Fold:
Amino acid sequence: MKKVGIALLGLGTVGGGTYRILEKNHEMIKKSEGIDLEVRCVLEKNLDRCRELGVDESIVSTDIDRVVNDPEIKIVAEFFGGIEPARSFLIKCLLAGKSIVTANKEMFAKHWHELEEAARKGKAGLYFEASCVGGVPIIRTLTESMQGNNIQSIKGIINGTTNYILSKMSDTGADYAETLKEAQDLGYAEFNPSADVDGFDATYKLSILSSLAFRKKVPLDIIYREGISKVTAEDINYGKEFGLTLKLLGIAKQHEDGRIEARVHPVFIPNDEPLATVKGSFNAVHIVGDAVGDIMLYGRGAGDLPTGSAIVSDIVYAAGQKSHKLSCFKNNGLHIPNREFVRDFESEYYIRMTVKEEAGVLSDVTGVFGRSNVSLRSVIQKGDVDNNGNVTVIFETHVTTESSMEKALKKIAKLDCVLEVNSIIRIEK
Amino acid sequence: MKKVGIALLGLGTVGGGTYRILEKNHEMIKKSEGIDLEVRCVLEKNLDRCRELGVDESIVSTDIDRVVNDPEIKIVAEFFGGIEPARSFLIKCLLAGKSIVTANKEMFAKHWHELEEAARKGKAGLYFEASCVGGVPIIRTLTESMQGNNIQSIKGIINGTTNYILSKMSDTGADYAETLKEAQDLGYAEFNPSADVDGFDATYKLSILSSLAFRKKVPLDIIYREGISKVTAEDINYGKEFGLTLKLLGIAKQHEDGRIEARVHPVFIPNDEPLATVKGSFNAVHIVGDAVGDIMLYGRGAGDLPTGSAIVSDIVYAAGQKSHKLSCFKNNGLHIPNREFVRDFESEYYIRMTVKEEAGVLSDVTGVFGRSNVSLRSVIQKGDVDNNGNVTVIFETHVTTESSMEKALKKIAKLDCVLEVNSIIRIEK
Structure:
């Protein structure tokens, strides 16, 4: 029986979940995988937490060198989160020949090239299934199941907090602030929710997933990012009338010429798309490959045991490898020429405006759209004229570029008859 | 650059799709995987087909020994289907140390232990991602992504033909015979449709998937099997009224005591279950693990390129392994004691009967159910009394065992007031 020593850096939510799975299913893993996983060191300051989980105090430490210097430790699982000290610790471990397993998407999205370099030098492996979409095997699918595919697109609900908030807003009709507060009270959103609601977390994941899908590093700074804090109950309801569901999606596409576009923003999708049916804190990723066609993976994107499941799967996987496969990216994510990416991407749009109810208004607005090369699919007046003589109008456009839309909206905002452009939401079909 | 020789046994639909992918994406695979895949031999009698695909005639043969005796061929992909000559050829290849890749679910479900034995002797690998659910990475998910999970259940739409027929019947209201005929004309069903519509194909796949999930061989003969040929448009429509969708599912569960139940049959599921939204020829598998919770994988379950995608992924995967992992089943699927399996499984039921419209009928029927320990959720009379004074009644039960239901129905069929028990369909929630 192959015995493999492990270190766990941190015993927070996911670290604790991982420890629990390793304890509970230790014998099963031994029998079915032929590997005896032994936790030899846990780096954790909080001794109460260690006791709560039943960790033997003799293996608890706060000194990374105890991990680095133990030759029996072959795999290091990191649960600190954030950049430091995770980054320095892991580079030390990799250089010492220890493979790392992590859920740390931010560090991976920002420092992948450094970690790879250290892994190459140390002949160690880098495993990060848990960094994206919890226990759903999206990384392994991209790296070990789609090798024969030229991947065309990847679209996903890759942040559970925002999906919970948007699903709830849609179900209850409540507004954003109220729903966020409720999500915070229930523990679905952080006290400081910015990483989730402003789209940072989804951007980290999209950078990782699209880099693997397109086999070159897609750096964070080329990903367009827009969060959900401006989403209104009103637009969600109007969307319903049009058969559309609002989701925060990560979208990445490879164009025919090899250029890549990547973006994270709220977007309306048709109700009958599989992604539209993904509710609450569930996540899902839809991939299109030239051979396999459409596939979708669905599951819990967070939580101690689901994410711990991905960590344990990486540990077992890493333990079974005789040598470790690293990425074959054509770039390292640094100094990438702009021409490799599409920033002026195309989309359909939903636009809600408040305009004066008077003759010629629609003709003025639609005229500007036309002259800016934005073709309209529909124009619908919603509700009655308000006390000030104003009315809500919703425009749906055909596919147009970001730049054409921006140009049109700048001009429209200057029209006397337009009081406000209330909402601009992309539609993805 | 590592060069790996391949042989393709057969160039039918999936063999041809595989060849196309290997040709089209050869350079991409070389760059991103660092492996140069070379097709060195194709076993195919039909030379027209070889020409159509642009296969160089110098590598076409009909002699398996050319494959066995070529030391450069490391991986053999089989597309013959059926048991022989696939089985004998593959055993020869395995004993010669060549790994095999196959989509042949029937052979795998029936002869897995023999293939494993040969693979062990030859130190070769067995790869069969393509045998279940086409390009959807369900095998890799079970073997390489859920190692930390005690899997509780696996439920899936694992046959595209029957899902196409049932989806179509639901959409159009047409009956089974007419819809099958249409599916045959469109190429979605075979001229002899029995393997699909009688559930054999799904049973092969469920045997493979549940064996991997529960880490012991689940042989074909313990899987309960019932096809879709008795399904009526009437029941599909009544199901709709109750918020239920009819699907042919493969269901396998591990009970608390370790016993396993496995079955393939038509079943009503609630409309809002993710599996209910899987339409047409798409497939999906829903797995529940003790760590990961619910996950679902979705995609095309058949077709030249989707299944070819799985074959190519297995080829690349096999080519990258220094040694091959085989199953660690606790049994070989032979001589398994009955006590390891649950045959008298539990389910809810939908039952449609034609009864005489007269006083006391419902009391007679419900009385028999009650005395047989079958508890009813609802009893609803449907439509008007017909010319013969008969009426349709639909019963929905709570969870009960197969044996209780059988006992009850035997007695009910003998009641004078019951003209016919028209349909018995399980409900899975």
Summary: Chain B touches chain A through 58 residues (CB under 8 Å).
